[in-house]
């Protein structure tokens, strides 16, 4: 049994797997990390591995504290990955993006794949039909957009995510919601159209904390799975074990 943990820039997600079976998921903040992991390990006594993908600023020691109970593995650029990496700066490619690309490669073999992860940032990752990771894009996510409008202006209030009534905002609040939500939806649609124009067939996977909110608002029918990173982490680790 494996406990996978994804440390993002907003929050921590974790899931327990037995082989390919996803048993339970958890979401928590950085300050609760050790307490939550301890509880999960108590609940699932047969967990043997703790597998971590981290792009956030959590101390490794918080995980190493469990080394007397389980084997601890931090996914790194040195691990075996099932794709050829054609990124110009492979060492700076986010480990979460590597894991998403690995999951897409293993779960949807030999086809063009675009993974869109809507979290703190919106990341786009393209793996072509020859299993070559080609790159993608990084853009601000919802919260970063709302916060930057407030932070870098004198007059704009800080709002939280809300569906706009229309693309024509009739007040300051409506204008902000339209700009942030419709803007991001149009941006994602634009990228999808661009990728679709560039390849005959492509599978698109949408994940991250805002995947469900976005999926409802996108014209394109795409596969939304908010657990895709954790499932990919499980697949990536199994691949590493077989290929080391
Ligand atoms: N309970 C929640 N707490 C915080 N963010 C949430 C929650 N539910 C949904 N979200 C949305 O998910 C986003 C974070 O997504 P996530 O994929 O967890 O980010 P990251 O991997 O960068 O930490 C937030 O910006 C927010 O819009
Ligand atoms: C782009 C990211 C900040 C996304 O983080 P997230 O939204 O998942 O918290 C992360 O993948 C990262 O730190 N990347 C390094 C730069 C790169 O991928 O090229
Ligand atoms: K992301």
Automatic annotation (TrEMBL):
| Sites where the protein binds K(+) | 117
State the PANTHER family in the record: TYPE III PANTOTHENATE KINASE
On assembly, the entry states: Homodimer.
Record HAMAP family = Pantothen_kinase_3
Q: Which cofactor does it need?
A: NH4(+); K(+)
Cofactor binding summary note = A monovalent cation. Ammonium or potassium.
Record-listed substrate binding positions: 87, 94-97, 172
Protein name as annotated: Type III pantothenate kinase
- Top EC class, one word: transferase
* SUPFAM superfamilies per record: Actin-like ATPase domain
- Catalytic residues of the enzyme: 96
Please give the organism. Answer: Flavobacterium magnesitis
A single Gene Ontology MF term assigned here is: pantothenate kinase activity
Q: In which pathway does it act?
A: Cofactor biosynthesis; coenzyme A biosynthesis; CoA from (R)-pantothenate: step 1/5
């Amino acid at each position: 049994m494996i406990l996978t943990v994804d440390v993002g820039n907003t929050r921590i997600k974790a899931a327990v797997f037995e082989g390919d079976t996803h048993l339970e998921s958890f979401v928590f903040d950085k300050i609760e990390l050790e307490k939550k992991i301890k509880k999960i390990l108590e609940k699932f006594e047969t967990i043997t591995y703790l597998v971590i993908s981290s792009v956030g600023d959590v101390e490794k020691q918080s995980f190493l504290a469990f080394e007397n109970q389980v084997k601890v593995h931090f996914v790194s650029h040195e691990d075996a990955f099932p794709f050829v990496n054609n990124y110009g700066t492979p060492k700076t490619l986010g480990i979460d993006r590597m894991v998403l690309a690995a999951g897409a490669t293993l779960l949807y073999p030999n086809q063009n794949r675009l993974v869109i992860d809507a979290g703190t940032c919106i990341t786009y990752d393209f793996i072509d039909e020859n299993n070559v990771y080609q790159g993608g894009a990084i853009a601000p996510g919802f919260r970063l957009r709302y916060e930057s409008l407030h932070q870098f202006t004198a007059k704009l209030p800080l709002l939280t995510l809300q569906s706009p009534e229309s693309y024509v905002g009739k007040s300051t609040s409506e204008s902000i919601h339209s700009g942030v939500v419709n803007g991001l939806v149009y941006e994602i649609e634009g990228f999808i159209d661009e990728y679709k124009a560039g390849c005959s067939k492509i599978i698109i996977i949408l994940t991250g904390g805002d995947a469900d909110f976005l999926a409802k608002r996108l014209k394109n029918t795409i596969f939304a799975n908010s657990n895709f990173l954790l499932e990919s982490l499980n697949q990536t680790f199994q691949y590493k074990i077989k290929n080391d």
